[in-house]
Amino acid sequence: MKRTLHKDMDEPAYRKHPGIGSTQLKCFILEGPLDYYWKYVLGNLEDEEKYHYTLGSVFHLAMEYPDGWQDFVTVEPSVVRNDGDYRDCYLQAMGAIQGTKAKPTKVGDTIGSASKFDKAYKAAFKEWANDHGKYVIKADDVDKILGQQAAVYDNFEVRDFIESCPRRETPVTLEMDGITAKALLDISNDHVFGDFKTTRFRNIHSFYRLAFRKMGYDYQFAHYRLVSGIESHKIIPVTNAPPYEAMIMDVGWEMISEQYDHVIRDLEWLAQHLSMVDESEKDSQGIPYDWHSEYWGAEIDMEEVFLNRPVTIGGVTEEVEVVG
After folding, report:
1. Dihedral sign of CA atoms 105, 108, 110, 111 in order
2. Cis (ω within 30 of 0) for the bond into 33?
3. pLDDT confidence of residue 65
4. Span 87-142, pLDDT tens digits
5. DSSP alpha helices (H): ranges in 98-250?
6. All structural domains of the chain with their residue ranges
7. Residue 103 per-residue DSSP state
8. This prediction's pTM
């Protein structure tokens, strides 16, 4: 196996890298091979530019850089403007409705979400922002992120940990037999990495049970450990509603040891099956039969699953893990 720390690779280049990231692997493990095939092999992904993805990127940027993050952010306009940087947006939106029955929104009127002009205006503004290297977020969310950032740096343990990690948004890749895995470390040094998460939970036990386990953060950290080779991990949960609060939690080996084995197993599974896609027998949807969900094609005794007992499928005993 060959591990590479990409100090000169930016986030957009990382996103385009063909390696298997933790989000893809969590989809495979938690949602099943069929969903993975549909989304990541056939490419039926929802728009990755959805607002919550953008807001997540801005959140991480603000947590990692106490100063200067707003230079990379612009506020989504709430009314139609036709001056300065907005002039081209207005002209582009006018061009989009030319020859149609759609009417332009008057300058100074509130931008809605239904009219063709308003949609074109917002798309043009977003295009302008992307060309200038800026994220577009809503005005209310600027205040929210400022509150979360203040909570992070008010916590002395969190602040000291951040200051001990000089690296930000660092991509790492791991070349395995027939497949490449990748990870983007929020903050790190040579011995430890940390990852920021937003959460509604203030109780650390609730966060562990209902977020860390339920949302697959355990698999994500197991993936990060494998890819980066770093054995010490911290997770920094930040509440997503006021009053804002930040915590820091050590992710011990016992929390992810079983998931670590699953990550290795499933990456090996992916490597084998991805190499056989073209030759595999496919169903009526054009999906290989061997990418269907676990135990597909046989009746499953759910009582055995519920009681966390070995499940026998086709004469073969399978161990079933129940998370919760």
Report:
1. positive
2. no
3. 85
4. 999 999 999 999 998 999 999 999 987 899 999 999 999 999 989 989 999 889 99
5. 116-131, 139-154, 156-163, 204-207, 217-228
6. 2-67+142-267, 77-137
7. -
8. 0.81
User: 104: alpha, beta or left, given left = phi > 0 and alpha = psi -120 to 50?
Assistant: beta
Tens digit of each residue's pLDDT (9 = 90 or more) over 248-274: 999 999 999 999 999 999 999 999 999
> So what's the architecture of 2-67+142-267 in CATH?
Alpha-Beta Complex (3.90)
Q: Return the residue matching tokens 């009681």.
A: 307
Radius of gyration of the chain measured on its C-alpha atoms: 23
Residue 281 in tokens: 């027998």
Regarding beta strands 192-199 and 232-239, do their DSSP bridges make them parallel or antiparallel, or are they unpaired? parallel
Residue type, 255: M
3-class DSSP state of 174 = strand
pLDDT (average), residues 52-79: 88
Find all residues with CB under 8 Å of 288, minimum gap 6, and list them. Answer: 37, 273, 276, 277, 280, 281, 282
What six digits make up the tokens of 78? 């709430």
Nearest CA to 142 out of 194, 80, 71 is that of 71
pLDDT at 189: 95
Which of 215, 216, 219, 247 is closest to 234 using CA atoms? Answer: 247
